[in-house]
Amino acid sequence: MNETARSPASGQRLIFRVPTTSLLGAGTLALCITPAALAAPWLLTLYVAPVGIAAWILRTRTVVETRRLVTRSLFGGRTIEWAHIASLKLSTRSWIAAVLDDDEVVPLPGIRLRHLPMLAAFSGGRLADPTAPPAEADSAE
Predict the structure, then answer these.
(1) Calpha distance 49→39 (Å, rounded)
(2) What percent of the chain shows pLDDT beyond 90?
(3) How far apart, in whole angstroms, are the C-alpha atoms of residue 47 and residue 92?
(4) pLDDT digits (tens, 9 = 90+) for 70-86
(5) Which neighbouring-strand residues pair with 106?
(6) Taking the alpha carbons of 87, 85, 80, 9 in that order, is the dihedral positive or negative?
(7) CATH of region 3-122
């Protein structure tokens, strides 16, 4: 049996987020801004950009549990029960969003197309695993 096809035990959770190696980009930006920022005292405000990017990288995530999803963005968060998710919306850039019962679209930060089998396993059968082989029909001969 495929490991991702098993339903997870109660209390387990998955955390999807932007890789922390992305902080290297924020650090590089801060380093590149330094000569300009030190030219005048008011130019120190240029450091807001790399600090904001680092905060976004560290804060945004989606936590998937057997009963619910918890999304976090830079300035807020949201808890969504599996029962309220009608479907998933797949974008051309391979990002995933949840479509709720009332047709509201909620982005799921950090979840990509390659994570769909794990998401399907945690959904408790509410979402189909796109990588699972199709069920074979019984042939009556």
Answers:
(1) 17
(2) 53
(3) 33
(4) 999 999 999 999 889 98
(5) 98
(6) negative
(7) 2.30.29
Which three-class secondary structure state does DSSP give residue 15? strand
55 pLDDT more than 60: yes
137: tokens are 């029909």
Distance, CA of 94 to CA of 113 (rounded, Å): 5
- Find where tokens 């804060």 sit: 59
The distance of Cα 33 from the centroid of its chain, to the nearest Å, equals: 30
User: At residue 41, what are phi and psi to the nearest 5 degrees?
Assistant: -60, -40
- Contact assessment for residue 79 and residue 68, using Cβ atoms and an 8 Å cutoff: yes
Domain ranges of the chain: 3-122
Residue 45 burial (10 A CB sphere; 0-12, 13-18, 19+): exposed
